[in-house]
Specification:
Elements lengths: L19 E8 L7 H10 L5 E7 L4 H7 L5 E5 L4 H13 L7 E6 L2 E2 L6 H8 L5 E7 L16 E2 L3 E5 H4 L2 H8 L7 H18 L4 E5 L9 H4 L1 H6 L5 E2 L7 H6 L4 H10 L4 H11 L2 H7 L3 E4 L14 E6 L6 H8 L6 E7 L2 H13 L6 E6 L5 H7 L3 H5 L5 E6 L8 H15 L3 H13 L3 E5 L18 H11 L18 E3 L5 H5 L4 H4 L10 H6 L2 H7 L3 E7 H19 L6 H10 L8 H11 L6 H27 L1
Parallel strand pairs: 1-2, 1-4, 2-3, 6-9, 11-18, 12-13, 12-15, 13-14, 16-18
Antiparallel strand pairs: 4-8, 5-10, 6-7, 6-8, 15-17, 16-17
Helix pairs in contact: 12-24, 27-28
């Protein structure tokens, strides 16, 4: 225990019947209030005499109405200085704190209560401390934010509870009076969170953590051991393990899927988590952090026939000879379905109608529509079937099309087609499990195969030349979901299962065939290719999340290829994957692998040879070595 400094009053326990002030800071880029915030505050009400909510930025009328039952006071301020300056302004708003016995300063960076608040309050109420945190962080040398010095031991600022002996002190008033400006996140960490505990502890104030890091196997359990914290009764789950940089979490074996399963096991309403993450996390990052790939078996293990979903299959068929193949896939669905076929010519429509009529099994209802071909399956779906998607007749739409991809060669086209069809409708048992995902998760908006990479250089360049156009469309549609940096989470191949309401932003927009242009516009940067990348982001804006799905066979094909390819790439430099990524990014390498990209990278690194010729020579030597190794490897495979 610290030695009491001058003017410091000895710590006391929280008195029975004491009064607690809670100051909760919320930030929402849309000006709203997410349901998880209301849930968190509702649980705190019984433990607080007064709740002040500070909205950083803006607050809509709807958001204010959602706060009314769970907050006594609501402040709206400019989003300046993060939650720390919001706490400062809230304290100034309240003014005289002498009627309170404890002040809790917290924010919306956590989900809860995963476990009840009560036991933690009761335990900490009995502790004679001046201030306490929910979790703490060990001292680190060097400071990971600066690369030098030390990061002091500190209570984590997402939850700091302060007793009256401290908040009525001159030291407290001086701290907030002299609080520095904090223009960025690192300022908030280095100028407040990292120093708050030390400053007051050095002056004799006594601090504790409800769940101290010393009881856990890492120095930062809120990030690395969230599941263990929850098991020990911690009511809060930090959001960061579910949106942090995936290679960092991979380096430390932080398995978000296990954490979420643990949270669900304690009865927390999971739709609150999924909706918030969908709207505020880059979809591909979320897919990785929460391990949202579902590997489905070919034996039905989860479908509930007592709650069938109303399903429509919308298939754009250009290659008439693929009609039977597509219908064979659709027939694996676990319940009756309606079929809507779009095709660009009447002759094709007549041929398709004959094929459908000749089949021994037929969908419940069949409709064949002739549509214009500008935009191909994208326009056929969004324009030719807009009335179906806007209606309320169906719970689930299965979007398929006749895919051959002849321009990419036989093997590649064959694999791409099977990667789409088999990962969506592999067998009756598989399709039943696929539908069961939507039965089980009301917030699941889309499900589709993982990114195609066998036969295609998709990894690292999934946006291709579509990102600028995507950004324009996102702005037009009101999509504020953050975009993934390197490659979007998207249904490459444009086949998927979806809830029609999850696609509402795409469907409500009145597209025209002329928007798509002619055949020459069907390329990267054209509207059809841009729209291929939009569905998950449009769904996420409405709070619907996406899962990727794979059969056991295709996961075997995909993983073994990935495993070998990554092993080969990783052999070119030392360290964990995150170290290799950071090395290349610091070198400035982002490109398509051309010589000019290597030149830019080596110039950024200050590689030997200050002249352009020297840099090009160095880069060319590296490329020659790479090519030589590749030829040697190929020769060895031929022996």
């Amino acid at each position: 225990m610290s030695v009491l400094g001058a003017g410091v009053v000895a710590a006391s326990v929280f008195p029975r019947g004491g009064r607690r002030l809670v100051v909760y800071v919320v930030y929402d880029r849309r000006g709203g209030v997410e349901d998880f915030v209301v849930h968190a505050l509702a649980g705190l009400r019984e433990h607080a005499a007064h709740v002040v909510v500070v909205a950083n930025g803006s607050l809509t009328d709807e958001g204010r109405a959602k706060l009314a039952p769970v907050a006594d006071s609501v402040l709206v301020r400019d989003n300046r200085g993060y939650d720390i300056w919001a706490h400062k302004e809230a304290l100034e708003f309240v003014g005289d704190l002498s009627s309170y016995d404890e002040v809790v300063l917290t924010n919306d960076t956590w989900f809860g209560p995963v476990r009840p608040y009560g036991p933690v309050f009761e335990r900490m109420d009995a502790r004679p401390v001046h201030f306490w945190g929910m979790t703490d962080h060990a001292e680190e040398v060097p400071n990971p934010f600066t690369g030098e010095g030390r990061l002091p031991y500190h209570l984590q600022s997402f939850w700091i509870a302060v007793r009256r002996e401290m908040f009525l002190s001159e030291q407290w008033r001086r701290y907030w009076r002299e609080l520095p400006e904090m223009p960025d996140y690192f300022d908030a960490v280095l100028k407040h969170e990292a120093v708050f505990t030390k400053q007051f502890a050095d002056r004799g104030f006594v601090a504790e953590a409800a769940f101290p890091y010393r009881k856990y196997p890492t120095t930062h359990p809120a990030l690395f051991n969230a599941d263990l914290l929850i098991d020990d009764g911690c009511p809060l789950l930090k959001r960061r393990p579910l949106f942090h940089y995936p290679p960092f979490l991979d380096r430390h074996a932080v398995i978000g899927r296990w954490t979420l399963e643990r949270v669900e096991s304690y009865g927390f309403p999971m739709p609150l988590i999924w909706s918030n993450l969908a709207r505020n996390v880059q979809p591909r990052v979320l897919n990785a952090d929460a391990a949202m790939l579902e590997v489905l078996p070919d034996v039905d293990t989860s479908y509930d026939p007592t709650t069938p979903l109303r399903i429509v299959v919308i298939a754009h068929i250009f290659y008439v000879e693929m009609t039977d193949e597509i219908l064979d896939r659709a027939d694996t669905l676990p319940a009756d379905y309606d079929l809507v076929v779009t095709t660009p010519e009447q002759d094709r429509a007549d041929a398709i109608r004959e094929i459908v009529s000749a089949r021994s099994s037929a969908p419940r209802n069949v409709e064949i529509r002739v549509v214009r071909n500008e935009g191909r399956d994208q326009s056929a779906f969004l324009i030719g079937c807009r009335d179906i998607l806007l209606g309320d007749r169906y719970d689930l739409v299965v979007k398929l099309h006749s895919k051959k991809t002849p321009q990419d060669g036989f093997n590649v086209g064959r694999y791409f087609k099977d990667q789409q069809f088999a990962n969506l409708l592999n067998s009756p048992g598989y399709a039943a499990n696929m539908v069961a995902l939507f039965q089980r998760e009301p917030g699941l908006g889309l499900a589709y195969p993982p990114t195609i990479h066998v036969g295609y250089p998709t990894m690292g360049r999934g946006w291709w030349s579509n990102k600028a156009g995507f950004e324009r469309i996102a702005a037009d549609l009101g999509i504020l979901v953050p975009l993934d940096e390197i490659s979007p989470l998207a249904p490459y191949g444009s086949m998927y299962f979806a809830r029609p309401e999850a696609l509402r932003l795409l469907i409500d927009h009145e597209w025209s065939y002329d928007d798509f242009g002619g055949a020459e516009a069907y390329q990267d940067g054209g509207l059809a290719h841009i729209l291929e990348r939009v569905p998950s982001y449009a769904a996420a804006e409405l709070g619907f999340h996406t899962r990727t799905v794979a059969s056991t066979e295709h996961l075997a094909i995909s993983h073994t290829a990935f495993d070998f390819n990554l092993d080969q790439m990783s052999a070119t430099m030392a360290g964990f994957t995150i170290d290799q990524i950071h090395f290349l990014k610091r070198a400035g390498y982002v490109g398509d692998g051309s010589l000019s990209d290597f030149v830019r990278m080596y110039r950024r690194m200050g590689y030997p040879g200050s002249s352009l010729l020297g840099v090009m020579s160095a880069a060319r030597r590296r490329l020659v070595r790479f090519a030589g190794r590749a030829r040697s490897a190929l020769a060895r495979t031929k022996r």
